[in-house]
Amino acid sequence: MSKKKSRAKVKNYSWFTTFSFLIRGLEALGASAYSTASYVIIVNVFPDNAGAVRIGGYGLPFYVIGLVIILIAPLNVYLLPSSEKHAMETKSGSFTKLMKLTPVVVTCFIIVVIAMTWSFLDPTLEPHLRKFKLSPGNIGLIFLLLSAMYGIFSPAWGWVTDRMNNYWWLMTLGLFCNSASLLLLGPSSILFFLEDSILLNIIALSTLGISVAMSLMPTYQAILDSALDGGFVDNLGTHSVIAGLWSSVYSLGEVLGPILGGTLLEHYGFSLTSTVFCCLNLTMAFLGTLYFFSRDKADNTCKLYDSQVGYQLYKPKNSEIITGPRIEKGENGKWTAKLK
């Protein structure tokens, strides 16, 4: 009988760890480039509407996803529109200038907390579900449930964001809902009367997917509007800077989430881990509510629209409008202002 050849695998622990970090680093490099470019392209194409283990073993999901990405990459060259017409636009504001805007910094902290909430489940949820003796396929379906609810409700929250002026409450309300879902997911020791069960985990993950979509969808538009309020020009360069910032802070949260979650799980268990992330969301929700509420209350400026560079802010006490039609039926008029 001929011996069946086994596939080459890295069995040495040190080499496995080294290659794991190397692969994840290359993946992060490619994903960040793809993600940043996709946000910029989407905003330019749609400027008015910015938001298998059991079958093939452990390696099959990686092979399938890698093959799909390789097949899709060449199609982008032919399908995506050209941006040559934007080549002569004026330069955008600097990254450091963007980070000096307080609402941008607050929104970035919100993004980090949301990304941590999403990513801490990667190393912790499967160990938490082991006691239910589920098959790998069923565990995969539970993970899919979280992503599916996020994917289903993201367009809905994006639609709401595009049609609202003050959408900050979506972010803070989503953070509050995240907190409630995480309390159920443990379940937290605070809810001592609840018994951990598959049904409770399914309900918690479903609501978490919905609330994460609610809190995350307005963040890009919030940073963009804050940048325009701060004097940035509405062009491709500005969208590039904002997309890079958004991707960076989200990636930071994706790094911090598994590190903190894995450490807490190892020493204190899943119940306390979910409670800690609940407190993070709750704290950020309160801070965000206080900031945005106080900002709206103190904001006595009026927004004057310009079809070329977006809107600029002029304080009524220091300036007056001398020409320009009124804005009617959502159409942007030309405005000029003169200091008194």
From TrEMBL:
Cited InterPro entries: MFS (IPR011701), MFS_trans_sf (IPR036259), MFS_Vesicular_Transporter (IPR050930)
SUPFAM superfamilies: MFS general substrate transporter
Record's keyword terms, sorted: Membrane, Transmembrane, Transmembrane helix, Transport
Superkingdom to which the source organism belongs: Eukaryota
Pfam families attached to this UniProt entry: MFS_1 (PF07690)
Listed transmembrane segments: 21-42, 62-80, 101-121, 141-160, 167-186, 198-220, 232-252, 272-293
Predominant place of localization: membrane
GO MF annotation, one: transmembrane transporter activity
Entry annotated with the keyword Cytoplasm: no
Topology versus the membrane: Multi-pass membrane protein
GO cellular component: membrane
Subcellular location: Membrane
Name of the protein in its database record: MFS-type transporter SLC18B1-like
Species this protein is from: Asbolus verrucosus
